[in-house]
Write a structure and sequence with these properties.
The chain is mainly α. It contains 20 helices and two strands. Strands 1-2 form a two-stranded antiparallel ribbon. The protein is globular. InterPro entries: CPA3_Na-H_Antiporter_D, NADH_UbQ_OxRdtase, ND/Mrp_TM.
């Protein structure tokens, strides 16, 4: 057993509780928060090292072996996502210092921020579907507060929609878990894989699998993304970055884990359904990215395109495509946070989010402009940047496994990403400035610092893709061979 596995949850959870009692001490809240996120990065890095050298790590709470009790499991897939999530969370925290405003800081912004991280990391590390539900609820309750914090009319409207959608999906989730427990007698993921294989995945099991896919698709924004574009436009930029980088990835993680470990007997149903949903998501996301002329919605529809792209890799389900899923998930967490950071800086400098009212910022903010351009190339998948390796693996597998139509849609969606973001780059940074007032964002250098860190990671992940792929391959091997996960967890 490895007791370190609980620390990525406990550190932000205890931090959040402490910060509740420091409502008026903003400076102290910042210091404690910064120490917390750096400590979590350190712990997450140690877990990745332990998994790479010693194999899958487990923690049985209270000493209760599976299928009884609570179990946390860190295979390389979960460990990498926790590490990247901790880095992105730290970047979002420091961007918050410069942009969120003292009024929100005094109304429990940082406690909710850390509770959200608790839910995200718990979702990645849990080995039990009921605990996954619990962690979902922790991050969702925190996200409700972060969306509405500020109390503007738009925030209140979008919060109602966001809460309603997630309450319905959570109700469906817990009802599905009840049916699954009645059918199998367990909710431990490794044990479920064994029980489903023994019973055969047909009839009731297929219905349960489809219901779980619907639940996780709502969380991820896979096809059922009607709530996402407006809801993610409501909160401040730091919160948008946190949501865009992490929340949809939790849903995608749940889909990946469920349909590479538990429901793997009938890929003709489950994986074909994921494939169709992925294709539709990429197409509809591309239409949305082309249709709008404000930064928020363009960026939000680019989130949707990437969700569809990752789901495409999940549906192909070869080790190569699953390696690509892991690599691209890591890339997308970093790149989407950076995209929203740069978008927030652009809006602050322009005083508007409408493309038609922007222009000429390259003269005043050359670093922001060229970072945005390079990030666009990374999101498209241009080598040697971070988006290239994952896309190549997924598209290559798609063509190799006769998913030609889906692979072509994936490639076409990359060109739509290129067009939509190059349009932003051209209209925002070139031409003449269209506003007489030249607004200098407050704390511009402080906002640039976390953006520069993520920008460096985007480049390093691409240039060092061979090194990163050594870890990614370990993650993909476990996803492609569920027996490795099952044997590591079911040790009795």
């Amino acid at each position: 057993m490895n007791n370190l596995l609980v620390l990525p949850l406990l550190i932000p959870a205890f931090t959040a509780v402490i910060l509740i009692f420091l409502k008026e001490r903003v400076d102290l809240q910042r210091i404690i928060s910064a120490v917390s996120v750096f400590l979590n990065i350190l712990v997450s890095g140690i877990i990745v090292y332990q998994v790479s050298t010693k194999g899958i790590q487990t923690l049985y709470m209270g000493g209760w072996l599976p299928p009884y009790g609570i179990v946390f499991v860190a295979d390389m897939f979960a460990a990498l996502l926790v590490l990247v999530g901790a880095i992105v969370g730290a970047a979002c925290l420091f961007f918050s210092f410069a942009s969120i405003g003292e009024e929100r800081e005094r109304f429990y912004y940082y406690p909710f921020f850390h509770f959200l991280l608790t839910g995200v990391f718990g979702s990645f590390l849990t080995g039990d579907l009921f605990n996954l539900f619990v962690c979902f609820e922790v991050l969702l309750v925190a996200s409700y507060a972060l969306i509405v914090l500020g109390g503007s009319k738009g925030q209140l409207r979008e919060t109602l929609k966001y809460v309603l959608v997630n309450v319905i999906s959570s109700s469906l989730f817990v009802a599905t878990l009840a049916y699954l427990y009645a059918a199998t007698g367990t909710l431990n993921m490794a044990h479920l894989s064994m029980r489903v294989a023994e019973a055969g995945q047909g009839g009731v099991m297929n219905v349960i699998a489809v219901l779980l896919l619907i639940v996780f698709s709502i969380k991820a924004g896979l096809l059922l993304f009607f709530w996402l574009p407006d809801s993610y436009s409501a909160p401040p930029v730091a919160v948008r970055a946190l949501f865009g980088a992490l929340l949809t990835k939790v849903g995608l993680y749940a889909i990946t884990r469920t349909f590479t470990l538990i429901f793997i007997q009938e890929p003709g149903l489950t994986h074909s359904l994921i494939a169709w949903m992925a294709g539709a998501t990429m197409i509809l996301g591309a239409i949305g990215a082309l249709a709008y002329n404000d930064l928020g919605r363009i960026f939000n529809y680019n989130i949707i395109i990437s969700v569809g792209f990752i789901a495409f890799g999940i549906s192909v389900a070869t080790q190569d495509s699953l390696n690509g899923v892991v690599f691209y998930l890591m890339h997308d967490m970093v790149a989407k946070a950076l995209l929203f950071f740069l978008g927030g800086m652009i809006i602050s400098a322009s005083g508007t989010d409408r493309l038609k009212e922007m222009g000429g910022l390259i003269r005043r903010y050359p670093w922001t402009g060229w970072m945005f351009f390079v990030l666009t190339l990374a999101l498209v998948g241009v080598p040697p940047l971070s988006g290239f390796a994952g896309k190549v693996m997924m598209v290559r597998s798609g063509f190799g496994q006769n998913h030609v139509a889906l692979a072509l849609i994936a490639l076409a969606s990359s060109f739509i990403v290129l067009y939509s973001l190059i349009k932003v780059f051209q209209q925002v940074f070139w031409g003449g400035e269209k506003r007489e007032e030249q607004v200098k964002p407050l704390h511009y250098k402080a906002m640039m610092a976390p953006a520069a860190v993520l920008f460096a990671i985007v480049i390093l992940m691409g240039v060092g893709a061979e090194t990163v792929n050594g870890y990614v391959s370990q993650a993909g091997a476990v996803l492609a061979d569920p027996a490795l996960y099952i044997n590591a967890v079911m040790k009795e």
